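Let's practice the habit of predicting before peeking. Look at the sequence and jot down your guess about where helices and strands might fall. Then scroll down.
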Amino acid sequence: MDYSDTRGCVDLIAKSGPDVFAVRILSNVDALREESVAEFVRVAAAVGATPVIVGERTKRDALRDGVVYRRYGVSVVTPGTLEQVLDGDLPVFEEFKGKRVVYFNPEALRSARESLGLSQNDLAREVGTTKDTIYRYERGFPASEATAEKIARLLGRRVFAPVDLGFKGELRCSNVFEFRRAPWDLFVAVHKTLALSRTRGVVKRKVEILRRGRGVVHDYYAVIVSSGSKAPEDVPAITEEELRAVARPEDLVKLVRDELDEVEG
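Done guessing? Here is the structure:
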């Protein structure tokens, strides 16, 4: 679902089977601001998606394909890396404090080492490091790109663990999300999902955005009108008073569902 024309905090929301991605697209990822990223992360949480920022460069350098960078806890990848991810080829390199690192699959690393009859000390000598370092790798600590490649030449790249693209930060869980720069003003995430927008501004445009996401991003939609205002025809609507009076998110979803059924006949 393309939201790039809304000038909000999210450009795309994509589903493929159980996988859902919320995507923000930028040329220069250094243009990101923490407040904007925080709302983007909340949009992803509302729709049950992994937030991913797609960019081409920083102020100083071009981003590299096959590497996962981080900004405010969100994964940053190039368009080429995103294409690899969608094809099921997950990256193994991650930028950490300005250096590229690799995490190992501890069980795969240990099994591959033992299958060649190598002790931790033997492997350490082969790659020019210490036994204690190999011990840490087998317990989930990262290795530099150079050391990881030396190990891969001996044991194969199957010992690498794919980078976890999930958000690395704190997020307050909620069933109801309120936004300032999202395609909607409110989003309710319970058994069924609901997107709502207030009728201030260009109502026709807001309704079009709500309708385009139905069935992909959310199950139901409605506009919120102030008391005494006329609701748009053929659009489910609730008043601000009704919204405040609803005790549970589930009841709000049911209220809109019934209104939508009536509007659609």
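How did you do? The chain has three domains: 4-91, 101-159, 184-264.
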